[in-house]
Amino acid sequence: MKTIQRFIVHGIALMTIVSQAQDIKPAEVKQVMKRVADWQIAHYSDLYSNQKEPHHPLDWTNGALYVGMVKWAAMADDDTYYLWLKDLGEKYDWQLHRRKYHADDHTVGQMYIELYRMYKDEKMLEPTKEQFNFIMHHPARTSLDWDNPDNQSRWNWCDALFMSPPVWAKLYNLSGDKRYLDFMVKEFKATTDFLFDEKEHLYYRDQSFMGKLDHGTKIFWSRGNGWVFAGLSNIMDELDPNSKEYKYFLKIYKKMAKKLLQIQTPQGHWAMSLLGQEYYPTPETSGSSFYTYGLAWGINKGVLDKKTYGAAVEKGWNALVGHVTDDGMLGYVQPIGAAPGNAWPDKSEVYGTGAFLSAGSEVYKLYGGK
Question: What GO annotations for molecular function exist for this entry (predicted)?
Fold first, then answer.
């Protein structure tokens, strides 16, 4: 059995290395993004992660898809993708999902705001503003301890830093009301002070992972840190680069980027347990997509050096493309979870597609796409 496993892993590595030998061309980036986007729309109501019914359209899983899909819509040669997203928003009256304080249920607000920027229709924005105004004036007072019965009314798990903070940053950018920014920064700092490991420059998924080891290594979940890294980029996109707030986020981002460069696998992906690639050799494309996105974003914005980080983006993107099927399904997406686990070539998830489309949007620009 071990011989068979080694053969499979070797085959995966070989396929990835072959794909990395190919030059990245903007037209080809756009082509594969279209293929993935079209496959996902066609399979939008499929079952994932052993679900008994499809994800709710306003669920965080789909919210993460929309974050990437709206980036692709801005690149596409027709309005098909904007209209698909717009129809979803109209169907649900531009409401956020069911839990008022829970960050996961805020994720779809990122897409609503981008559609508002496209169409300038106030109804797209009003429910999100109303809910966030309520939260701002009635903030949760719970602790960040994971065993708190009402623990997720604040951002006490690292995934939350992708889901909700960019919405606050976007509202600030649109309105100029600094109260949105001040609230977001205060809560982000509280989470970072709680979950960020200053030695490893990575985030614990939540308090329950602190002090635990997996094969002698600290447990830093790949997609969890991918949520954070992509979230940082999406937040900074909304801020003045000369502001103190931007510099705060940039400092964290650069610490993480340096670490991610050190721990990227030779095949181009990042292991599901970031410090344990020896024990998690299977590719995982959702976390790896977020890292490729964030690193390419940093080079495009001039905050990372291309000579230092460019090869990591190239390896990352070619590894990801190597796991896209001919009909456009992104494979090796780890199912819903909160810790390192398994992924399979024939298993996908909507948030993996969203992460891939985000990555492609920045890789396209990095290699000269207009």
Answer: hydrolase activity
What's the pLDDT tens digit per position in 90-138? 999 999 999 999 999 999 999 999 999 999 999 999 999 999 999 999 9
pTM of the predicted model over 0.90: yes
Residue 9 has pLDDT above 60, yes or no: no
In angstroms, what CA-CA distances link 143 with 118, 301, 338? 38, 36, 20
Nearest to 112 by CA among 61, 76, 77, 63: 63
Which residues have CB under 8 Å from 157's CB, separation 6+? 146, 195, 205, 206, 224, 338
Catalytic residue among 159, 193, 237, 326: 159
pLDDT higher than 70, residue 150: yes
- Enumerate the domain spans of the chain: 2-366
* Residue 26 CA to its chain's centroid (Å): 22
Give the separation between CA 276 and CA 270, rounded to whole angstroms. 10
Q: Maximum distance among all alpha carbons in the chain? A: 60
CATH topology of domain 2-366: Glycosyltransferase (1.50.10)
- Tell me whether residue 159 is one of the annotated catalytic residues: yes
Q: 66: how many CB neighbours lie within 10 A of its CB? A: 28
As given in the structure block, the two tokens for residue 324 are: 């896209």
Q: pLDDT > 70: what percent of the chain? A: 94
